[in-house]
Each structure stands twice: as structure tokens, then as C-alpha cells.
Amino acid sequence: MSLSNKQAALSYANRGWKVFPITPNLKTPLAALAPQGHKNATFDLAIIEQWWTEHPKANIGLNLEASGLVCVDVDSYKENCIFDTYMQTHDLPETLQQRGQAGNRPLVEQSGREFQADVAIAGIRLYRSA
């Protein structure tokens, strides 16, 4: 059973993650509701309910830094990506995974330590900020 975008956004907010609406099929904030993008992110359930009631097809953006999250964006569709080879001998911790538009596979994890933001290594990018 898959969740609607509203249900998923509410679920993330219940974890203490700050969310904001993204324009469907794009990577830009839904300006009518979140004109400042990640700065408008919230875990206020009433606001989230209102946002996704007005725009049920809006995608979900996360303010990673404000939520204490890290995103490892794996571009395994790229020739030089070493992730699939690495995973043949390593286990991935259980974490939230999503499907990116370009075939990438973002992995989101709670961060208990400092990470350097926006690092790119052979098809793998690490994000800590929105």
C-alpha cells in the first residue's frame, strides 16, 4: 500500500522532519504555498494538511538541515557510479529511500554527526542542507 503525498508529508512531520510542497514533476518549491522554499518548511500538521489539501499532487521537499537529516543521492544510472559495486559487499542501513525523476535513488538518514554538505564522489552526492 502506498501513501498519498499528503499522508507521506504528515508522516514525515510526525517524525519531526520539516516539509514543504514542491511543484509536481519539478524540483522547485510550490511558490503559491512556499514562496521561500525550504525556509517555509514546517512540521505543523495543520499547515501541512492545508497545503496538500489545496495541492494534493505536490511533491514533498525536506529541509534537511532543520530536520537533522542527511541525503545521500545515488546516481547509479551513471557509468562512473561506484555505489552498486560497493553494495555487493556491504549492507545498507535501513533508511528512507525514494525514487528520483532521473533514475537516481536518494537515501535519507537521521544525522547524529557533522557532515560536509554537497560532496560528489563517483556518482554519489551527499547533502546536509536544503
Q: Describe it for me?
A:
The chain is an alpha+beta fold and 130 residues long. The protein has 2 domains: 5-64; 68-127, no CATH class. 22% of the residues lie in helices and 22% in strands. The protein has 4 helices and 7 strands. It has helices spanning 5-14, 45-54, 64-67, 83-87; strands at 19-22, 59-62, 69-74, 96-97, 105-110, 119-121, 124-127. The strands form 2 sheets. Strands 4-5-3-7-6 form a 5-stranded antiparallel β-sheet. A two-stranded antiparallel ribbon has the order 1-2. Helix 1 (5-14) packs antiparallel against helix 2. The longest helix is centred in the first third of the chain and has 10 residues, at 5-14. The protein is elongated, with a radius of gyration of 15 Å. It starts with a helix and ends with a strand. Residues 115-120 have low confidence and may be disordered.
Which structural traits does this protein have?
elongated, alpha+beta, two-stranded antiparallel sheet, 130 residues, five-stranded antiparallel β-sheet, 22% helix
Query: Which sequence of strands runs across the widest sheet?
Result: 4-5-3-7-6
Average residue pLDDT: 77
Number of self-contained structural domains: 2
Uncertain stretches of 5 or more adjacent residues: 115-120
Task: Report the total helices.
Answer: 4
Measure the end-to-end span.
29 Å
Write down the overall geometry. Answer: elongated
Task: Please state roughly what percent of the residues sit in beta strands, choosing from under 5%, 5-15%, 15-25%, 25-35%, 35-45% or over 45%.
Answer: 15-25%
- Summarize the biggest pleated sheet: 5 strands, antiparallel
User: What string gives the helices and strands in order?
Assistant: HEHEHEHEEEE
Number of DSSP strand runs: 7
What structural category arises from helix and sheet content?
alpha+beta
| Rounded Rg | 15 Å
Q: Summarize the amount of helix as a percent range.
A: 10-25%
